[in-house]
Design brief:
single chain, alpha+beta, Jelly Rolls, 7-stranded antiparallel sheet, 4-stranded antiparallel sheet, globular, binds 2-oxoglutaric acid
Length: 269
Amino acid sequence: MITAQQIEDFQRDGAVMVPGVLTGWMELLRDGIERNMAEPSQYASENAVTEGRFFDDYVNWTRIPEFERIIRESPVAEVAARAMRSQTAQFFHDHVLVKEPGTPKPTPWHQDGPYYFVTGEQTVSFWIPAEKVEAATLRFIAGSHRWDKPVRPVSWADDSDFYESGQEWIEVPDPDSDPRDMRVLEWVMQPGDAVLFDFRTVHGARGNFTPSRRRALSLRWVGDDARYVQRPGRTSPPFPGHDMREGQKLREDWFPVIWPAGSGTGETA
Ligand SMILES: O=C(O)CCC(=O)C(=O)O
């Protein structure tokens, strides 16, 4: 499912492409995305685009049975644990991102970590495109998961600061106009392939200038060392009423441990 070399690459670069890891699950994934778009949640966004469509929505797996089946029954949980070199894989959330044909809006370069209330060395997202992607694929700055400061989180709609105050940030990099020491990783991907990346790895995507849809599901996981961290404002996703405190493990009744199967303690905050 994932080779020792792929795990090594993920640990070193903060991102790796794993071909065919979800072959056999794509019809379910497409049905889930379509259900999500037809029944969006309160968090759904159109990202203020004026041309084309860039839809995203998250934290829907408990009401989208297709997503719940992929999370619980496909190989993703085990692969997540192996990639993170963690004994466990605890599910954080699902995120649907759809760029319709003719959407020039790029996804800004960003790290996911600063938007989340999670800290730790063992984290991984699977970005799973529903159709073949070439230029509109997800792109990563190799090794950025080891940068010594986080990148300033910004709003995708207007690039304004995501938090009103905060810590010391690195300014949002642009490896296309200023490559300096940055190596960009990107892969042409077929349905069934996934890219795995650390929550701290800087990533972004071009607009979708092709005649094909670019639908993707991201599934986000944490490992043994992940802990709740207080951020200087509302996080994304916010998970209102979570009731967790600094340093706690994520509550398992909201964020189930899926791997190893049957290993959850049912621990709550
Ligand atoms: O699909 C995209 O354009 C962005 C995806 C992303 O940022 C993520 O999955 O964390």
